[in-house]
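As described in the Methods, two query proteins were run sequentially through the folding procedure within a single session, without resetting any intermediate state between them. The first query and its resulting structure tokens are shown here.
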Amino acid sequence: MQLKQKLTAILPPEEILDRPIDLVARSADAGFYRLIPKAVVRPRNVSDVRALFRFSRQERIPMTFRTAGTSLSGQAVSDGLLVDVARHFRRVETEDGGRKVRVEPGVIGARVNQVLRAYGRKMGPDPASIHTAMMGGILSNNSSGMCCGVAQNSYHTLESLTFVLPSGTVVDTADAQADETFRSSEPELAAGLLELRARLLADTALADRIRAKYRMKNTTGYSLNAFLDFEKPVEILRHLLIGAEGTLAFIAEAVLRTVVDLPVKYTGLLLFPTVREACAAIVPLGQAGAAALEVMDRAALRSVQMQAGIPASIRALPEAAAGLLVEFQKESGADLAAIEEQARDAVAGLVLLEPARFTHDPTEQAGLWRIRSGMFPSIGAVRKSGTTVIIEDVAFPIPALADAVVDLNGLFRKHGYDEGIIFGHARDGNLHFVVTQSFRDEAAVARYARLIDDVVDLVVRRYDGALKAEHGTGRNMAPFVETEWGPEAYAVMKRVKELADPAGMLNPGVIINPDSRAHLKDLKPMPSVEEEVDKCIECGFCEPRCPSRDLTTTPRQRIVVRREIERLRLAGEGDGTLAALESAFPYDALDTCATDGLCATACPVGIDTGQLTKRFRSTRHSPAAREIARLTAERFALVERGVRLALTAGRAGRAMMGSAAITAVTRAARSLFGSQVPLWIEPMPAPAKPDLPATVREGAAAIYFPSCISRTMGALPGEPGEMSVAEAFVAVAARAGTPLHIPEDVRGRCCGVPYSSKGFTEAHALVINGTVARMWEWSDRGALPVVIDTSPCTYGLRSGQDLTSENRDRLARIKLSDGVEFFADTVLPRLTVTRKTGAVAVHPVCSLVKMGLTEKLEAIARACSETTTVAASAGCCGFAGDRGWLVPELTASAMKEEAADIRASRAAEMYSSSRTCEIGLTRATGIIARSFIHLLERATAPGE
């Protein structure tokens, strides 16, 4: 019986993924190991998890739990069952006025802090990946970060857990009878934990060593301090699960104690002659109250010194120099003068290359933090094609930190890792080092093996540090756990694994692994493919931004599949996998990509997989299709008339036959003519008014370019249609004394986005060059700004893609202003709000987010309404120009969470800045979405 058929006794078929593309797409995490799972399963609840544990035992198939897959050491990969708990375990609730928070494993860490922000609190762990990493991984790796240190990590802020053991036993440790229930349900496990505790307490030397090692960051192996910190078996196991990397049980829910979020920050970059002086400053700065102390060696600073916004002084630093990024944090209302004095006193005796300069300015602070955060991606972006980026984290006693940095750099030189850099959380003695590595041949693997052997010797034998400080043991350091801890402590860890998971089916090979070469096996292949793909480090930071993440594939997964296709082609493997991947790739990777580019805003190396998708779409076009696109670009005014006629005919047909019949007709047309025939799916707009409002050129404050969408698509069913977007733009601007002028020849002009998104490069070049040339004349050669009413059009034009050099120069001299930007900055301050709407929701479209204009849309809404909601889950709506008619399931999937949040906000109205996106929002929420200009027009209309 096939595996999927057996699993359907536990889960519905849609929660069992076994197609080659599904398995390959999920085969990699952020680390450099890869295993292909036999199936990916998505349990819906604890009952499903218990059934999967039973299935795993019976079938002898190992299983690994996975959330975001941002783990760096191979903890989230499996060649058995990969259990994806990110889909259905996403609940987060605050308790006790925000002093506690209850989370499920599929909640993103930043989402937790978003919920806690209203209480002025946050969770303790603050990993750099918090905007992507989910609570399952944060807890299971005992993740920390820049400021949390040891005291505020998951282990020390844990209040209670609900977990499921491989036996199927479910324990809620918050229950007053939890320990008694645990002892009766799992007598052997409970007794074994108490025996291990007694063994450790009796070994005074080992107990002292455990206490000492956990005073600094340490995630190597299991959390042995649990045996010394707690007496009851259930409490010991509760804390053993923190940092256990999913090898002992499934964490279904956790309650964490939260910490105060300190909003007052004072930040500075201190530059030292040598790393020794930088490390000497750690103790005095820490004693002075610095919350963050980030050390960077010269190589790390060099890796970012040419990036935009980096101070020029960094480029002139001597070879031995080092830096410390220092931040003091205080509660709201803190005495700023006192903080400044505190910082001055702390740096007064330090040996610096230039005077210390601290700032309260958020923009300047963000720039300083970009120096630190840009180091890992800077190496990833410039590495050789076919190599991977390896980032490891170790911890040293602070007095030895300077020597350790020097010694690590020595190892880079010894083994030929000239690009290696070192940075880290100096306050905790925690260093990260980054190297690039190829695993293409045995010589490359052997070189890496020699480096790791020397790193282990340096950290363990020379400095008695920790091989893993916050990234978890994983596959990379599992062979060296005994080396760090010694045989007695390692025996305890092995016994813990045997007691909790006697069948050894849960995430095998992670933490406990007898294979001394396990870290050199199952290495991830990185074949060279497209330039965009080659830069990808597969970290997964893009995934929360992707609208297709719950439907088909994410940017990371598209790239993983693309690499596997190339690997199979080169290897000539003929088991049918290549054909299956190539067959599924068009829909899963291309048709359902919104090409919104939001992935690039989260990507450490700035990859926009939307551009790659467009390139692939271009290669799929036949010569005839390209010629048709070119002809429509040359006669775009006819396209506008055609769209209005189609909308008119469709609404007439709906009136006669009903919406279902019209939808059926378009489905039939798709079956005959292909998937590029759009579906008629309600709500559909009426055709826009054929005539644009009359305006005059003389005295105009700006040129107004109504997009082709605004010129063709009018009101939605139920939407007041007395004033079009163009009419509202003109009326409100005139009301403020900033009149707009619409050129008479604006019809037939387009920003080119419809062609660009489909990969019609030649057609795109025709329309965008024609439009920019006309804008140059309309604006009197850049003398007047040009205002655009649809944000994707503004962004598409600003990108300047496919422009001639002449038009690129023209565009640089034209001030293109998005409607949101123009009305927020220029018009709104000149208006009087006469009536406010009650509760409204606003949706910042992708292009608005990428242009950094979200706050301006919110400002307009706040000025015009009593309450304004931007859903915490707001992202790309997935409509993507025409995807909402071609692949409607994309919008349905992308909007599922945001629609629920908007409905929960009880907003009666919704506003955005793109008609097509507004159609998708309306379809998903049932609330009519309109252009923001209608809200502003109504709010500032003269009183009766």
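Immediately afterward, the second query was submitted; its sequence and tokens are:
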Amino acid sequence: MSQTALQTTPLAPEEPPPPSADLEGATPLMAQYLALKARHPECILFFRLGDFYEMFFEDALKASRALDITLTRRGQMNGQDIPMCGVPFHAYENYLAKLIRQGFHVALCEQTEDPAEAKKRGGKAIVSRDIVRIVTPGTVTEDSLLQGNEANILACITQGHGNAFAVSWVDLAHSAPFVQEASAGGAEASPSTTAPSVGDILARLGPSEILIADKTAQAPSLFETLALWREKLTILPAVRLGGTQARRSLTEAYNIKEIAALGDFSQTAVHALGNLIDYVSLTQKCDLSHFRHPRLVADAPYLAIDPATRRNLEMTRTLSGARSGSLLAAIDQTLTHAGARLLAERLAAPLTDLAAIKRRLDVQSFLTAQTPLHGKLRDILKETPDLERALARLVLGRGGPRDLAGVRTALACGENLRSALLACPPEGLPRNLKNAIGDLGDHTVLHDRLERALAETLPLLPRDGGFIARGFSPQLDELVTLRDDSRRLIAALQQKYTAASKATSLKIKHNQVIGYYIEVPPTQADKLMGQPDLFIHRQTLASAVRFTTVELGELERKITEAADKALAVELELFASLLHDIEQRLPDLRTTASALAELDVEAALATCAREQSLTRPTLDDSMAFSIKGGRHLVVEQALRATRDGKPFIGNGCDLGPTQRLWLLTGPNMAGKSTFLRQNALIVILAQMGCFVPAQAAHIGLVDRLFSRVGAADDLARGQSTFMVEMVETAAILNQATPRSLVILDEIGRGTATYDGLSIAWATVEHLHDLNRCRTLFATHYHELTALAHTLPALMCATMKIKEWQKEIIFLHEVIAGTADRSYGLHVARMAGLPRAVLTRAEAILKTLETGESGTKATANLAALPLFSHAITTQEPAPATKVTSPLSEAIAALNPDDLSPKEALETLYHLKEIAIANS
């Protein structure tokens, strides 16, 4: 990756720059726009004008193309037309989502004062505006802009001395920052490096946006890693991500004087955390006091899985990038969005903590056995909203009444879950379920208040009003009555005045000029004139006389002000409810986490029951014994086919005496599936999930490596073989005795003897030096000779059956070796032309003679490339056929035969054939 491939995205400080000469020809409105735009030149500025967000100049050109909307103009500036486009305010999220998906950052500019206040400053005064938020891929919180089942993580990479790095990250739904020390990684890394690589951490997190300083982005040791995340990078000036700014951001966000108050963090980790917090503060423009204290992730709490292995095993995405067809999709039975995100997080980060794994497995064992409880938990979880993200939006100042309702409903579901668990005998509950009872908490007071406060039908935004239920606030009820029941109140007042005046034609009317008034015909005016203490004369017209009263004037004023006052009271009540939530925020977040964990555990128990999964045995030994192992994804695909063929399970024992399996056999027989399924079983077991096998005993794995398939990386100038060698080098340099390695077809990307030599040496290195548990699939049958010199190597092959010159794949793994690769059989199944297959058979026979390379090549050149046997697709007879049978057949005219004659002719031909046999 060239150093010019990454462009810096400057993020300006909040102080506006000095006025530019470009403002001289601008109107006051354009001057305001340009001043705000200058503060964040890298963003598209959504400039609020009435009911639209407008964009001007270069922003308008970019947005009109990206959104496919009409480009117009708004006046001129310095003799040039001002390009302009806009999107409706009420539907801006749809347009915002399109821009964010295309990699744009958007600054939202809102009016910060009432237009009436601006008018007081003079007729030419414009409404004050300011940027209230910057929307970036990693800081999005709106449901309409996010995938509910995927986390939205913002990460930051910071470089320390040399190749020491730190990666910090946060999901705004949790508001819990993390940081982990990291190394540059690469193929040359060694097992002694305890810190994971930057690439490994990013692959585990799958961030939506990655912050990095321009200088760090040019570090040669990160070129390969950053190339994989090019579209996710936000490259900032080093001055913005400096250590001083980072420390200031941390102390201000957490209201502390010394960084040490947060914990024992290295300088690099502090800078990574501070830069992350600074960016969140800059983009969200709100108080971050609700953020939890940062946590340092230990060096090796997770099973280390490099990016290539994750990609090859299709853990959360297939090679094409789809979720469907991945291991995650195969096990995802969650019922809540928060549960789906937690399941993906667990799958991406299998544990190496044996006790934590067993606690998760205990819960699934319990729920699998307790069918009624399991079903009840699932029924409740089905109705549980996303409490995590509702809380995040509320504390960030972007929540609405529906988020309050989400909190209310989630708390009710939490209480129902808590009651269901409390009904179980406490001595039988696993530890994690006992903890869940406490974590769900008792939120009865808050739930009851929300239940009483919220109306049945709720708007999206607080400013829309109408979300407080009747009876919750007497003051609001009175205002709402005035606002909504004005016709009834006026009718009642009209009836009262008619009775008092005895004027049967009295009407109360309204117009925009004089407001509400009482009107009677001239013939009945005296009846009102005679009561001056009640009725006040206003106008006399030819056809009517108009009056008013003190009561009517007061009612008019109340009606006019009622709507604004009602909304103001509702907003006060919304703020009060929000305050109640913020006061209990830590407990509510604990409850949200407990809801997600219960959903995951119940979902995995469902998966275990429906897909016949088994609890694995895990310990600190070097065992690796799988009986009847299966590949979940392939099994589901087979089940979905029309014939519904069963998946053939296979065992695998990589114990200390046979820790390296050399697997041979034809293509299409299932070697790659067998390799992958054992790696996936390890991942499922160490994430705390039952596994697709009859039984599984696994000694804890510290690192998982996979080199399967063939792919090039043209963007980085790497051929298929180079990619293969880079990945193999990383395995040989980093694998430990506790690692699991699966290798498929090493050395096939180069010349035969080169490839065989590399594969041979790789097997020896894995056996003698790495001493790791390994599955090595190959077509180099010569490697099976190593079984005589490598005591821990076992040869295995894929069982097949030959019948009538065809092969049948039985998809069984057995001890032994394959006598040949059956490549020509597979080629025939694929539909290669018969001429090519015939030629290939001839070449193969020559090569299998064992002659020297030069002589074999000469013999191949002597073979007739365009021989009669090869080129003739439908061979013509070389000589005239004169046999009695052929003559009899040639004399037939089938179209002239009746059914009876055809049968007689058939018997006659049979007699001729018998006579000439």
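The longest strand covers residues 793-803. We note this only descriptively and draw no conclusion about the first query from it.
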